[in-house]
Write a structure and sequence with these properties.
By secondary structure, the chain is mainly α. Helix content is 89%, strand content 0%. The chain folds into 2 domains: 1-61, no CATH class; 65-117. It is found in: Mitochondrion inner membrane. Pfam families: CBP4.
């Protein structure tokens, strides 16, 4: 029984070490196009990861549970997004009304010029 324990406790990690390829080996087996794309996007992935870690650090500073703080932040961002969207729609509506008023004014001006001539 002890022999089986030794075989499994030492053999399992040894097998994993033998079977798992090194990071460079896997990358070298990629298609050259994939290698180029992977290298090009590496900086972007690192920036995203750093931003994620920074956000986690900010959330962990709160007295609240991290999940509750994240939910509150998400809700606040959603409210801000909806507010910005409503402002944008109001601005678009205002621009449409101004354009319609300008078109009406030009149309009325053209009618008066046509009658006067």
């Amino acid at each position: 029984m002890a022999g089986i324990f030794v075989v499994f406790s030492l053999g399992g990690p040894a097998l994993m070490y033998y079977v798992t390829p090194a990071e460079g080996e896997v990358f070298k087996k990629f298609n050259p196009e994939l290698q180029a794309r992977n290298l090009a996007l590496k900086d972007e992935r690192m920036k995203n990861y750093e931003a994620f870690l920074q956000e986690l650090k900010e959330l962990s500073k709160s007295d609240k549970n991290m999940w509750v703080a994240a939910k509150e932040k998400q809700k606040k961002m959603q409210e801000q997004f909806l507010e910005n969207e409503a402002q944008e729609k109001a601005l678009q509506q205002k621009m449409r009304e101004e354009m319609k008023a300008e078109a009406r004014g030009m149309r009325d001006q053209m009618r008066t010029e046509a009658r006067g001539v």
